[in-house]
Amino acid sequence: MLKPAPRPAATPAVEFIDLAARDESFEEAFLAGMSRRDKAVPCRFLYDARGSALFDEICTLPEYYPTRTETRLLKARAGEIAAAAGPHAALVELGSGSSVKTRILLDRLDRPGAYMPVDVSRQHLRAAAARIAADYPGLRVVALCADYAAPFDLPHTEGRRIGFFPGSTIGNLSRAEAKALLGAWRVRLGPGGLMLVGVDLKKNPAMLEAAYDDAAGVTEAFIKNILARANAELRGDFDLARFDYEARWNPEAGRVEMHLVARGAQRARAGGRVFSFADGERIHVENSHKYGLEEFAALARAAGFSSKARYTDEGRLFSLHLLEA
Ligand SMILES: C[S@@+](CC[C@H](N)C(=O)[O-])C[C@H]1O[C@@H](n2cnc3c(N)ncnc32)[C@H](O)[C@@H]1O
C-alpha cells in the first residue's frame, strides 16, 4: 500500500509592514542628486535586489575584512550579549540585509519575543525574513520595509528591545547623522533598551582602500549599480563602461569616499531629463566613516546612550559597541 506523501510544512507567516513607499522615491532622489553642482546620490538606493546580492558577494571577498571580523567578534561575545538582553527580548535589526549575523544572536537569546528586520531592499528583506521564520519556528517575525532614518513606530512587543546595527552600516552616515539616528533609536527602543552597533575602526589607508576597491571588481559593480538601476527604472541610458570607479581615504573627514568618475565628456538621459558630464566629473555615491574606539563611545554618549561594553579583535580592525538607553 502506498504511504501518504508527507504534507509539506506550512510556510510560517511573516508580518510584512511596508513603509518605504511613503519615503523619498529613487526617481526624486536620483534626479535631484544629478541636478546638483556636485553630483551625488544617497547610498541607500544602491540596494535594489541586484545591489543586495552584490553586497552579499562583497562580504565573501578576501579584501573585505569587516564581515569576517565582526562575525568572529559576535560569535565570541553572543553569550554576554544575550545575558545582557535577558529573556523574551525583541531583536530589531537596522539594515538587516540577508539576516545572516542575526542568527548568531538568535541562537543565544533566551526565548526571544520577536525579530524585526528593517531594510529598504523590499524583495531581499521579504526573502531573508521568510528564511528566518522557517528556521526559527515559533519566533514572531515582523519585517519592516523602511528607511531606518525616517520616523516610524515599532509594533508593540513584550520584553526588552535590543537594536542590532551590524555591518558598519552606521559608517554610511556622517558623524552628525549617526548621532541623530542613535538618538532617535534610543527613544524608539524605549527605557532599558539595548543597541549593539558594529563599527569599523580607523586603520592603515591601503587596507581601507583595498576593502572598498577589490581586485575582482565586485565593489565597482555594486557602486555602478546606481546607474544600472537608473537605466532600468528611470528609462536611463548611462554607459557604465564610460565611468571609472574610485575609492579614496579622506583623512580630514575620517572616511573612505566612493565616486564614479566620467571618462570623457558625455551626456546621459534618465527620468526624461538629460544630464551632462565634463571629463573627470564625479558622482559621489557612498561614504564609509571610520572611528576610533573612544570616538564612537563618545558619539553614542552624546546621543544619550551609556556604553555597557565594547569589544574589538586583536588586530583592532573592527569593534562592537553594546549601548544602553
Ligand atoms: C552594508 S549592508 C549590511 C547588511 C548586513 N546587516 C550585514 O551586516 O552584512 C547595508 C544594509 O542596510 C540596508 N540599508 C541601507 N540604507 C538603509 C536605510 N536608510 N534604511 C534601511 N535600510 C538601509 C541595505 O539595503 C543593506 O541591506
From TrEMBL:
One Pfam family named in its UniProt record: Methyltransf_33
Assigned keywords, A-Z: Methyltransferase, Transferase
Alphabetized GO MF terms: methyltransferase activity
Highest taxon above the source species: Bacteria
Signal sequence, start to end: none
A Gene Ontology biological process term: methylation
Residue ranges constituting the Histidine-specific methyltransferase SAM-dependent domain according to the UniProt record: 27-324
InterPro entries: EgtD (IPR035094), EgtD_Methyltrsf_superfamily (IPR051128), MeTrfase_dom (IPR019257), MeTrfase_EgtD-like (IPR017804), SAM-dependent_MTases_sf (IPR029063)
Record keyword Transferase present: yes
Key word Transferase present: yes
Protein name: Dimethylhistidine N-methyltransferase
Protein's organism: Amphiplicatus metriothermophilus
